[in-house]
Amino acid sequence: MKIFFDENMPFAREFFSDFGELTAFAGRTLTTEQVAEADVLLVRSITEVNQSLLAANNKLQFVGTATIGVDHIDQHYLRQRGINFSAAPGCNAISVAEYVLSSLVVLAERYQLVLQDLTVGIIGAGNTGSRLSEKLDAIGVNYLLCDPLLAQNDNDQREFVALEQALACDVISLHVPKTTSGDYPTYHLLNEQRLSQLSSKQILINACRGEVTDNQALLKMKQRGHGVKLVLDVWENEPQILTELISYCEITTAHIAGYSLEGKARGTEMLYQALSRLLNKPVEKSLTDFLPDSGISHIEINQGFDEILLNQLVKMVYDVRRDDALFRQQIGHQQETALAFDLLRKTYPARREFSSVNVSSNQQHQSAFAHRLGFGNLR
Ligand SMILES: NC(=O)C1=CN([C@@H]2O[C@H](COP(=O)(O)OP(=O)(O)OC[C@H]3O[C@@H](n4cnc5c(N)ncnc54)[C@H](O)[C@@H]3O)[C@@H](O)[C@H]2O)C=CC1
Ligand SMILES: O=C(O)C(=O)[C@H](O)COP(=O)(O)O
């Protein structure tokens, strides 16, 4: 069996070595010819899987994407061809939530905001939005959820608000898939008209897909002096992004919100599980077999939790300013934007989830707090 996998897929060799012959490829430049002999194709978000890519292949059995987003996959075409497909829902949702939390902590310090005085409008309350809401619950920050699709689901007992209400919150955090059809398409959900209604006091965070926000409209409003604070992890037209927008962002990164080692590797693990099921093979390997120990394994706390301690704790494990600094250093300076954007992602420095660090305290409620925030949980 010939298995082709994206070179940026951690532990692919460890998980799939028993399945057959493995070939790594560069996701951005994969060609029809390269993939012609594949029985299994394992991609990440930068590979468009469609009729054109698969035109020369008549033996493909399985396509997997080690990502949450599936907007790069023509699932209709795969169904027509009878090719099995699996994604990795939720694989890096914790990582995205920790990115947003780190951004909030950094901005709170920068502007002397008390997080508990703010309300976060979470737009899209699936895996990433839910992981974020749990972390906000843990630190006592208010939030409103907007998800018209889940609002129609009788099994979901959470309270949902209309888009307009979520857009009026102090912080807006976007967690929707990129869609162009259906009752609630998200392409340019934040279009010029909606963006124009934001106030200068608000914070807008986009860590889902760039196309959910109209980047040209954002640039225009910032050039006119609008004060809205921007945290952008994702961009329209990646990797050829609108570089003029960078200097107007408070925090800006190269689509790495989901790039904790755990998040990326969980994606690989989920595809291993899916392929094992398809081939009726036992699932014998687990992520915990391969994850290295984290740099910090244990933090002991001897004082009460307050804003300063929360700030230190979050930033000790993941400080988003590292990724922001790397981005500003590399993009638009050293080489062509698209190459620099992809290189930043390919050479992303190790980052671990809160779960890799045990936090303990002699006061039980403090340990419980850290646990709720995601520290020291199962990997
Ligand atoms: N920046 C990054 O590194 C990452 C980005 N993502 C992106 O984030 C997206 C969301 O991820 P998950 O939460 O895990 O997906 P999910 O599928 O679990 O949840 C998405 C939610 O958005 C809701 N939704 C759809 N259209 C909506 C609309 N118009 N208004 C409000 N809600 C709407 C859906 O009902 C669903 O509950 C992914 O599709 C992916 O594109 C995901 C992981 C990492
Ligand atoms: O899971 C998703 O959806 C994401 O956005 C991933 O973090 C994207 O990572 P790559 O697949 O582009 O490496």
From TrEMBL:
Keyword Coiled coil: no
Residue span(s) of domain Erythronate-4-phosphate dehydrogenase dimerisation: 290-374
Keyword Methyltransferase recorded: no
Reaction catalysed by this enzyme: 4-phospho-D-erythronate + NAD(+) = (R)-3-hydroxy-2-oxo-4-phosphooxybutanoate + NADH + H(+)
Location of the active site: R209, E238, H255 (proton donor)
SUPFAM superfamilies: Formate/glycerate dehydrogenase catalytic domain-like (SSF52283), NAD(P)-binding Rossmann-fold domains (SSF51735)
Pathway, per record: Cofactor biosynthesis; pyridoxine 5'-phosphate biosynthesis; pyridoxine 5'-phosphate from D-erythrose 4-phosphate: step 2/5
Free-text function comment from the UniProt entry: Catalyzes the oxidation of erythronate-4-phosphate to 3-hydroxy-2-oxo-4-phosphonooxybutanoate.
Family affiliation: Belongs to the D-isomer specific 2-hydroxyacid dehydrogenase family. PdxB subfamily.
Protein name (record): Erythronate-4-phosphate dehydrogenase
Species of the source: Thalassotalea insulae
